[in-house]
Amino acid sequence: MEQRTIIQTKISLIHGDITKQETDAIVNAANPSLMGGGGVDGAIHRAGGKAILEECKELVSKQGRLPTGKAVITTGGNLKAKYVIHTVGPFWQGGTKSEAELLTRAYQESLKLAIKHKLSSISFPSISTGAYGYPVEEASRVAIKAVVSLLRKEATSLEEVVFVLFDSRTYKHYRSALEEIS
Ligand code: ADP
Q1: How far apart are CA 8 and CA 161, in angstroms?
Q2: Can you tell me which atom of ligand 1 is nearest the CA of 44?
Q3: Less Cβ crowding at N or C end of the chain, within 10 Å?
Q4: Is 96 helix (H, G, I), strand (E, B) or coil?
Q5: Over 80: is that where the pLDDT of 1 sits?
């Protein structure tokens, strides 16, 4: 496990399955329909049960599809985490379509929602680096910088931000990105 403290918030990296995390919230790398899907999205809905999907449907019927870079919060259903924060990362299109800015927003909007709900801990997966094809070396730097810069800028309730990385290659890139932070 790797760790770093920014102001009062500990950032930790772990290798594992985000559906097992006991932080107040876990973040879902969702798609705009909020109807579930493959990868981490499918795993969260399977483990959390139908209450999550019910709330997602309700949100979409009220406010429409979730744009890239935005975030919404639902119950955690049967998960240990009380809440799921659903965000949509960018689909990688070669780096010329503001992907880094959109990925930054996905992390920061998720953190802002957690802060608004006065949560003390949150777990993130590696957003956009699976089906959405964002190269993990670049995405890991964007992800770490997005979290660090928001923590340095805003007063926060957060005690811990955890990155839960599913495979060792992804873990290694996030570890390098965390080491690069001055
Ligand atoms: P995206 O569509 O945003 O690319 P994916 O779910 O396809 O999202 O992949 C994002 C990352 O989540 C990938 O690194 C993938 O290996 C990882 N992942 C898949 N299942 C889990 C899980 N249960 N816990 C944590 N990470 C997961």
Answers
A1: 11
A2: 23
A3: C
A4: coil
A5: no
Q: What is the rounded average pLDDT of the residues 59-84?
A: 98
Structure tokens at 81: 């985490």
pLDDT digits (tens, 9 = 90+) for 62-74: 999 999 999 999 9
Answer yes or no: is pLDDT of 155 > 90. Answer: no
Q: Which among 85, 166, 170, 172 is the best mutation to test ligand 1's pocket, defined by most ligand atoms within 8 Å of the CB?
A: 166
Ligand 1 atom with the shortest distance to the CA of 166: 26
Tokens of residue 92, six digits: 């990688």
Mean pLDDT across the chain, nearest whole number? 97
| Domains of the chain as residue ranges with CATH | 2-180 (3.40.220.10)
Q: How many helices (H) and strands (E) does the chain have?
A: 5, 7
Please give the DSSP secondary-structure letter assigned to residue 29.
E
**Cα of 46 from ligand 1 centre, angstroms:** 14
Q: How far is the CA of 182 from the centre of ligand 1 (A)?
A: 28
